Amino acid sequence: MSKNKLGKEEIKKWAFLSFCHDIGKFIQRAEQEESRRGKPEKRHEEYSIDFVSDYLPTNIAELMKDIKVMCADWLSAWERKTESNTEVSQNKVYQTPLVSLFSKIGLGVPENKERKKHEYYYNIAKLSFSNKYKHDDFEQKFFPKTKNEIVSIDYSNLYKEFKEEIIKSGIDPFEDFNTFLFICQKYLSFVPSAVYPVGITVPDVPLFDHMKLVSAITSCLAVDEEEGEIKKEDMIEVMMRLVMKLEEYAEKEGEESISRNFRDLARGMRRALEEIARQEKIKIEKAESDEFAIFSYVYLDLCGIQDFIYKIAQPGDPRKGVAKQLRGRSFYLNVFLDVITRWLCDELGLTYSNIIFCGGGNAYMFIPMAFKETARRKLDDLNKKILEKFLGEIFVAFHIGDVLLSDWFNFGNFLDRMIKRTAREKLRKFYSSDFLVEKTGYDLKECQACRTLRVESEKNDEKELCDFCESFVKLGQVLTKEPVMIIFPKIGDKIRELPQKGVYLDFFVKDILVVDSQTEDIEDLLNSITKGVQEKLKIEFLSFSTENFWFPFYSDKQENLHKLKNHMIKIEASFKPLVVHVPYYDDGESGVKSFEDIARCRGIVNFGDKLPDGDEKLGILKADVDNLGKILKYAFRGEGLANKPYPSRFVAFSRMLEIFFGVYVPLFARDFNKNIYMVYSGGDDLFAISRWDIILDFAVRLREKFKRYTAENEIFSISAGFTITSPSTPVRIFSTQVDDNLKKAKREQKSSVNTGNGIKITPKDKIFFLAPLKWSELEKTIKLGKKMSLWVKDKKISRSFIHRIIEIYNQFFAGENKREEDNIMWYPLLYYSAVRNIYDKEIRREFISYLTEQEIKYLFISSYYSLLKTREK
User: Fold this and answer.
1) 534, 552, 575 - which closes a domain
2) Taking the C-alpha atoms of 811, 815, 816 and 820 in order, what is their torsion angle to the nearest 10 degrees?
3) CB of 631 within 8 A of CB of 761?
4) In sequence order, what are the beta bridge partners of 618?
5) pLDDT digit string (tens) for 804-832?
6) Closest CA to 798 of 827, 833, 831, 828
7) If DSSP states are collapsed to H, E and C, what string results for 775-803?
């Protein structure tokens, strides 16, 4: 752990009280709603002080007004922006829902009444998910809605549930701050941060994200002030620059009422700043520049993900458990940075509020400037351990630098620069590793799954899989249930002797045990973890459900929780928006289905007793959000105030996108068809496998859901690659094929969308299935393919005729055979074939209608679809 002057408990104190500085807004709105009073009884700051005083009774009022908290609050609240909003008054704050950020980003529509038509909102509700949820319940609660569709603004009951959960969990919000942080994420993710004053604030940032950012910044300022990296005078200068920016915007703002509101806000902030400067006896001087550091950042990028996941041998050999391994490897990497960022916080003495975002193989944290070298040394040591274990297969690229005040005013450019700097570190892979891997391959033999020299032949000549691959096979089995991760410290290089429950995973800096939440004797399991340990251990439960995540085990929750706290254990708990879904056999014993049985739809219930017709092949789907980098850099801009991107919005946006891919997509896949194997879904992309026709229908429906989730905003689109393959095809081959097809789907299009800032973004919004298709074209193609399949089954047309269609298309349109512009011989050839082979006049007339330049591509792909659909087993 990093040694610092402030101390871990003192850092936690500042993190906790600054996090709670605005929790009074939640309490105030609940009491205002319950009493139905107009003006609230107390200011929200007073409610915040009352709440914190129950856990930190010393000088709370004074600490809440500290310059560090004030500076952090002003920086975090920089998301406020101009908008004419006459609907909200102080008396109606508790009736105002959270505006969906997806409906506000880069529409290119002026900020006026016309823009209001595009606004979507969220019900005020707690964030809740688990693998038991139905996808339509999730849609009803957490998909954005028009103002008229909002059905739940119930602060009173939400606050009651919040208080009850704190009591039920048995936590102390200060002592167990990291756990309390996630309870607040559960209850405050759909509560707007600020809805007042009129004309300045737009309620599109969740209260949780604002509070967490204030906590992270305050922690950094507290440490750096103690270490001499920053002084009170510097914080005064930061706040003065914020006041000056507001005054500049007030002068530039065209609408008089909004300009007046800005002037009033700037005037009030200046008075507050002058008062605190007077108390601190600091002379306020005019700040001339924004080019100075306010704290530091760590950006992490997990490299080698695809090679690691797909480095598996032939799927056809059941001994290697390829289907289980694929899910196990994907899960391991999905939670990798969650474990690493938590470990780094522990090592630096910080709380989890400093983890600004973690998901999709990337993470970034705000840290004190004084901790930069310690963080760099810790991460270098981590990569050395990764190199030794994985022989260069995966690597954590990272960049550590300072956040300047100017970066805060243009966070999109800063984030883009941070990502590019980290990308350069990928080219210096293991550059700082000054050692050689000690183990050689002389006493090792090749693992039959990953083809790496990792199997110790002297110990067991019959062993075929290395320890890692064996653990991934077991992990894939556990993931069919309700998994919970137990994270605990390593004891040097030793591996603990643990009961044969769950799956042990080595994360180099932490030990992990993945167990079923229905595991009994959890007390005995944790006792085995602490065996021989002299000091109190921190043990964390990482759950994939918000339900009782603070103790996610079934038997006697409350009783067991209090028992465990009496041991040499400090329990913390958190959750991750990740629902794990894999197709498994209905008997409950055989585990994850093999790829062969997925292609055959063995045991599937959606089709009843009758299995689907056609070829027993797999469909491979890979999809991701288009232009996300450009959207973050250019389209994430507000009108009026700064016309710049704001950190709070970035954090909220990224988290909402992670919830869609991490939670909703697996739930929807499971409910759509139990035969869909969700290899990976998180961040902004997904990788799924199923029978070829099932996955195509799923892709069409999923794209519709994505458009709804992103508030029908035309700037958001999703593209996909698709390929059809045999169940025996090696994973690395079909993963390469689908990657190539995704790239083809994303090739530049002609049409573009104006972001409203002079920047045009080109939505791709296509899927590659034999050729690039718009999603509407894919629907049309599938519909025609199904119709042609029925014609074949009813003997209206023959399969040989369909083969002839494909032959002619390939002769004139495909690859190197692409015809000259004036060569139209394809038309008479197809017309002649239709007349000769289709006797039904209605079918012949419909078929001939597709013989146009625009329609021939659909006819070709539909023909291929119908051949697969009518092939005999």
Assistant:
1) 575
2) 70
3) yes
4) 691, 725
5) 999 998 888 876 556 555 567 888 999 99
6) 833
7) HHHHHHHHHHHHHHHHHHHCCCCCHHHHH
